[in-house]
Design brief:
The chain is mainly alpha-helical. The chain contains one helix and no strands. The protein is elongated, with a radius of gyration of 26 Å.
């Protein structure tokens, strides 16, 4: 019984330590955020693609 309590306490301390490190890293992060999309680039429509019309019906794609 004593060994189980020691293991549970050490697991609790280890998980609290990891959570504290993650929280501290999130609160003190000073770097630039990751840019997933290109800055200043806009999506352009080509002749083969179409935008979603207001009625919600999607145009079919032609087989290429």
């Amino acid at each position: 019984m004593k060994h189980e309590l020691l293991m549970l306490r050490s697991l609790l301390v280890a998980s609290l330590l990891v959570c504290g490190l993650i929280l501290g890293n999130m609160l003190t992060y000073a770097g630039e955020p990751i840019q997933l999309a290109g800055v200043g680039q806009t999506a352009t429509l080509t002749a083969t693609s179409c935008a979603l019309p207001p009625d919600g019906i999607v145009c079919p794609r032609s087989a290429s």
